[in-house]
Design goal:
CATH topology: TIM Barrel
Number of domains: 1
Helix content: 40-55%
Strand order of the largest sheet: 1-2-3-4-5-6-7-9
Oligomer: single chain
CATH superfamily: Luciferase-like domain
Shape: globular
Number of helices: 11
Order of helices and strands: EHEHEHEHHEHEHEHHEHEH
Length: about 325
């Protein structure tokens, strides 16, 4: 496995059965502090709306909270759904974050609404065409951060002149072309949308144009990892994740459920197939099998960074999963 491979975490502040938003955010802070101790490069939080079991809707606010509870780890958005916001507002928010926590803030940008169409309309005040402005909105955001806007009639304070890395997030080939054209690092959501992953990163690398931010392609893959002392224990822990995806597929979302001995009572063959397709980039097991799975994945994809999300019910087991993954990556 690549010794240079960076390891990072994605945390959605998922609410567990018996928990609430406050406890979910506390779990996120604990995960951030623990992964920082392990040497993870960054932890990202994601914008979702109208989802009662996810507490990261006010993403910029949560980034500030997590950054304030940690010392070194980079904290960012995976991502901010830019069509929901005026670029100026995001420039000011992230300019403020970077001013408070210099050198530690990432701005990952996505085109999707992070919610359903009705909620998107509520966020965008019926201006649903904003997704089509995504490329121009990114350029507008870059202008607000640059030193070239000092004569502009609209300027971002704080924000102007700050070095805040912008990432393009994607789950399809459209985003690959855009990230390549803009010369920005590319983070792919293979943890829930793996179907176009290989094609997208090939397009990105083929069409990449160097920019002021980046001189060569940089690929981050977000994947599901459930690590434990043994394969059997990891498979049991993974049932919480599978039940979460089952809820997405069947539109019966619930708080993250405790693990169960087997998924057999919970899904039909058709639903199992749908869930397994969504979670194709998932690595479950003890250290030895995890190393084999990840070695194969990294050899096939040559990613620069692995971002892990582990929807594990028990917080102790979740932190242990981060530790085992870190050991596997560093030792192989």
């Amino acid at each position: 496995m690549h010794k240079q491979l960076k390891l990072s975490a994605l945390d959605l502040s998922v609410i567990i059965e018996g928990g609430d938003a406050a406890s979910a955010i506390a779990r996120t802070v604990e995960a951030a502090r623990y992964t920082e101790q392990l040497g993870y490069a960054r932890i990202w939080l994601a914008e979702h709306h109208n989802m009662e079991n996810i507490a990261s809707s006010a993403t910029s606010v949560l980034i500030g909270h997590v950054a304030g509870k940690t010392d070194r780890i980079r904290v960012g958005s995976g991502g901010i759904m830019l069509p929901n916001h005026a670029p100026l507002a995001i420039a000011e928010q992230f300019g403020t974050l970077e001013s408070i926590y210099p050198g530690r803030i990432d701005l990952g940008l996505g085109r999707a609404p992070g919610t359903d169409q009705l909620t998107a309309a509520a966020l965008r005040r019926n201006n649903l065409g904003t997704a089509y402005h995504f490329p121009s909105d990114i350029r507008e955001l870059q202008l607000y951060f640059s030193d070239d806007n000092t004569a502009g009639r609209v300027r971002a304070f704080p924000g102007e002149g700050l070095d805040i890395p912008i990432w393009i997030l994607g789950s399809s080939t459209d985003s690959a072309y855009l990230a390549a054209e803009l010369g920005l690092p590319y983070a792919f959501a293979s943890h829930f949308a793996p179907a176009q992953f290989h094609r997208a990163i090939a397009i990105y690398r083929q069409h990449f144009k160097p920019s002021a931010q980046l001189d060569k392609p940089y690929v981050l893959a977000c994947v599901n990892v459930i690590a434990a002392a043994t394969d059997e224990e990891a498979q049991v822990l993974a049932t919480s994740m599978y039940r979460m995806f089952l809820g997405i597929v069947t539109n019966t979302r619930r708080p993250l459920q405790p693990p169960v001995p087997s998924m057999d009572p919970y899904w039909t063959p058709e639903i199992e197939q749908a869930v397994k397709q969504m979670t194709a980039c998932t690595f479950i097991g003890g250290p030895e099998s995890l190393a084999q799975q990840l070695n194969t994945f990294i050899e096939e994809t040559d990613v620069d960074e692995l971002m892990t999300t582990g929807n594990i019910y028990d917080q102790g087991a979740r932190l242990k999963s981060y530790r085992i993954l870190n050991e596997v990556v560093r030792e192989n």
